[in-house]
Design goal:
The chain is α/β, with parallel strands linked by helices. It is 27% helix and 27% strand. The protein has 10 helices and 20 strands. The strands form 4 sheets. A 9-stranded mixed sheet has the order 1-2-3-13-4-14-18-16-17, sandwiched between helices. A 5-stranded mixed sheet has the order 11-12-20-19-15, with helices on one face. It has a 3-stranded antiparallel sheet with strand order 5-6-9, with no helix packed on it. A hairpin with a 2-residue loop joins strand 7 and strand 8. Helix 5 packs across helix 10 and helix 8 packs across helix 10.
């Protein structure tokens, strides 16, 4: 399973690639692909199906109990902080050709410097009288953000500060910038003429592959652990639920744009999941009243990575809630609703883990530090669902390269699988 996760991480440099990889896995297992704009038939709505929209995916295994629309959901997000290519990216000075980028989300900026970066994403191209979307990723490094030499900044080790506008524009060639250069290069990547390139969603990504590291290879280091580990674990558990056959409704909802607030058409603060769930229920023959009743009796697990206690900064963690790597997934609590966990949802998750002998930890943020958030509160508010926030522990969150314990991969998948194995009221 760990090596399958490594493969997934390397194949998912952008949300579009992650969703494409996971959709292919679902299709290979017998899930029916549905069009986000087409008509849905009763058979797939009542069985196993999925729908993709841009960098988001919703998949389900239909319920076989007396209330086939009532069940449990697992939600996660497909995006990670990164550098994204601007719409007019051709720039550079003093004999360097550079690519104009904008910071996406809240990355640890210095972690993106002096690192071999590729480019990946989707390009919209003209195809006859219409347009089509094509994915690409480079196999070699094409960008680098060079730091200033220590001889020219003697105070760098006393507190390096990088300006998002000035210091993070990567170099990709020598010479003077040429208008249309990047667009033409993108066209080459997807097999289109420069004049047929309409627009793009393209990101820089770390080319170093995911790897097992440490004396005994107990650690997993990779880009995008936050939150591809949760996406992988959710789909892995859904495939197990699909193979098991009978049971309550099980849904995976993978949203985009969590790192920038989720207020988009495919974000958790939008209407898409509610629309998909209602369309599924109506296609399966339920009326809206039945769907709303079933929804009210359902529960959501919001899956996002958790902060493992840092050995060099223990004072940054709440003393009574220091989550350890390798000790199982953590339930994330916050009394100011930055996480959506309630007493009832936490109890439900702990009970599910108990059926699978999965150890559970509890995370609460340091009281003097601002707390991050997840899709949990937004999805909980949008659907009025009792929700628990859960995550595997990790270090270096929002770095270009993050790290977690190998020993937490299988228990996270087992916990999500058990979440669907436990009966709902």
């Amino acid at each position: 399973m760990v090596h399958a996760l490594l493969t997934h991480l390397d194949a998912s440099p952008t949300p579009f690639h992650a969703v494409d990889v996971l959709a292919r896995r679902l299709a290979a297992a017998g899930f029916t692909p549905l069009s986000p704009t087409g008509t849905w038939d009763e058979a797939p709505a009542r069985s196993s199906a999925y729908v993709v929209r841009d960098g988001a995916l919703v998949a389900w295994v239909g319920g076989t109990g007396p209330r086939p629309g009532r069940g449990r959901l697992v939600g996660a997000h497909t995006d990670s902080p990164c550098l994204r290519v601007r719409p007019q990216p051709d720039t550079g000075v003093l004999g360097y050709r550079q690519v104009g980028v904008e910071v996406y989300g809240s990355p640890i900026l210095a972690s993106w410097a002096d690192r071999d970066l590729g480019l990946a994403g989707r390009v919209v191209v003209r195809h006859g009288a219409a347009t089509e979307v094509r994915l690409f990723r480079t196999a070699h490094a094409v960008l680098r953000v060079p730091l200033l030499a220590i001889h020219l900044d003697r105070d760098a080790n006393e507190g390096l500060r990088l300006d998002r506008q000035q210091h993070l524009q990567p170099v990709w060639a020598l010479g003077d910038p040429a208008p249309g250069d990047v667009a033409a290069w993108l066209g080459e990547q997807v097999g289109a003429a420069p004049e047929d390139v309409c627009a793009w969603d393209v990101s820089a990504f770390d080319l170093q592959p995911a790897a097992l590291v440490g004396r005994d290879q107990e650690l997993l280091a990779s880009a995008r652990l936050d939150n591809q580990v949760s996406c992988f674990a959710a789909v892995e558990a859904l495939l197990a639920r699909h193979a098991a056959g009978s049971g309550d409704l099980a849904v995976v909802a993978l949203f985009d744009h969590e790192e920038v607030g989720s207020t988009t058409a495919t974000g958790a603060d939008g209407a898409w999941l509610a629309q998909v769930l209602e369309r599924r229920a109506l296609a399966a023959g339920d009326d809206r009243r039945t769907w709303l009743e079933d929804l009210a009796g359902s529960q959501l697990l919001s899956a996002d990575m958790a902060h493992a206690v840092h050995p060099n900064y223990p004072e940054r963690h709440e003393p009574g809630h220091r989550v350890r790597p390798g000790a199982g997934p953590a339930v994330k609590h916050n009394e100011n609703a930055r996480y959506a966990t309630t007493a009832t949802s936490a109890a439900a998750f702990v009970a599910a883990c108990g059926t699978a002998d999965v150890p559970v930890q509890h995370y609460s943020h340091h009281g003097a530090l601002p707390c991050g958030s997840t899709i949990g509160p937004l999805a909980a508010a949008g659907l009025a669902l009792d929700t628990v926030d859960v995550g595997a522990p990790m270090l270096s969150m929002h770095s270009a390269r993050e790290v977690m314990a190998v020993a937490d991969v299988a228990p996270t998948v087992a916990a999500f699988t058990a979440w669907w194995g436990a009966p709902t009221a």
